[in-house]
Amino acid sequence: MALANGEKFAEHSHNGNPHREDGRPVRTWEMSDRGFRTYLRGLKEDGVTFAASEWGLPLAALEDENSFSFTILRDPISRIVSNYTFDVQGGYTSWRNVNSWQAFEGGNWARDNYYVRTLVGRDWHEDMEETEALDMALRRLGNFDAVLILEDGQLERRVRELFGWEVSASVEKKARVGLLGRCLRAARALQQGRLDLAAIRLGSMSRISARELRVLAEINSLDVKLFEVAKRRYGSP
């Protein structure tokens, strides 16, 4: 959406996330505050107007008075199910149970309580008191210039008001659904010589069971609580 509306990304980037020439992501959230500010200054000098940070939060970004920081939160359970579905249909995982996928997949996007972990960042430790972690995450969420809720019925209006972007100009295509969409994705897999992936894409995924959803809610209880507070604070009335 940002690119389609004329924003400039870093020379090497993936979905707006700056990368190095060799394809590795620039791990800004692991930089010192001074190092991040130097890096950010370099981006601005290069004319970059938009940089995403999908896998971590550089806290110094929230303190820069000459930048506008924003985040879009999605229902955490829906986010997990969406990422799991993407991995299964893309042939990126052999897990066929969303709870096992989250427990053993290993990527940042699959971690439990992804939102709270990301917001707490380098201050996170596994034996933190839940209230301490949640309070810290909510404080840092409040340091963003704008917090948007994906499920908010006013999201399109708010994006237009904040950035002047036209949502309809997004280059992202809506996911194809139904038999036609599965056939097209299977055909692309066959063109790549991936018979196994074609079979996965042609078949329909089994529904996530009520038990699996309950386990997700329990394992990701901090994110569920954070999202409920965020909806009340930042969602449209």
UniProtKB/TrEMBL annotation:
Record's compositionally biased regions (Basic and acidic residues): 8-26
Superkingdom classification of source: Bacteria
Matching Gene3D superfamilies: P-loop containing nucleotide triphosphate hydrolases
Span list, region Disordered: 1-26
Record protein name field: Sulfotransferase family protein
Protein species of origin: Nocardioides bruguierae
Taxonomic lineage of the native organism: Bacteria, Bacillati, Actinomycetota, Actinomycetes, Propionibacteriales
